């Protein structure tokens, strides 16, 4: 999918987001790795973005598990996740705001988005 800027309204505030995906192959026969970045910002505040970084293994026939509604095991519960769904992106926006992201003043990055998925956002 192309890197497309999308609009989303959360609590009467307009946000924009983009998902960047990069694939790199590891070895000749091994599956590769996906590096995915979810970048969010408030309307009018493009320079103070909220970013979530993810590293995931390629899934044969599916591709990037974070953008294809793949199921993952979260504390023995099967859950699905697709970063292209606005309801999922809203969870990330609310998490950033709750944890100190001030879109008027500064950027914020979460380098291990995988850990957030497993331990914080989808308990």
Automatic annotation (TrEMBL):
Protein name: Uncharacterized protein
Top-rank taxon: Bacteria
Taxonomy of the source species: Bacteria, Pseudomonadati, Bacteroidota, Cytophagia, Cytophagales
Source species of the chain: Flammeovirga aprica JL-4
């Amino acid at each position: 999918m192309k890197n497309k800027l999308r609009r989303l309204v959360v609590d009467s505030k307009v946000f924009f987001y983009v998902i960047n995906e990069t694939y790199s192959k590891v070895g000749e026969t091994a599956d590769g790795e996906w590096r995915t970045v979810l970048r969010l910002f408030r309307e009018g505040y493009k320079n103070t973005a909220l970013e979530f970084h993810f590293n995931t293994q390629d899934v044969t026939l599916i591709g990037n598990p974070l953008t294809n509604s793949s199921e993952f095991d979260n504390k023995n519960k099967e859950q699905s996740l697709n970063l292209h769904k606005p309801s999922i992106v809203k969870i990330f926006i609310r998490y950033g705001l709750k944890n100190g992201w001030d879109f008027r003043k500064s950027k914020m990055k979460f380098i291990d988005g995988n850990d957030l998925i497993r331990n914080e956002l989808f308990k």
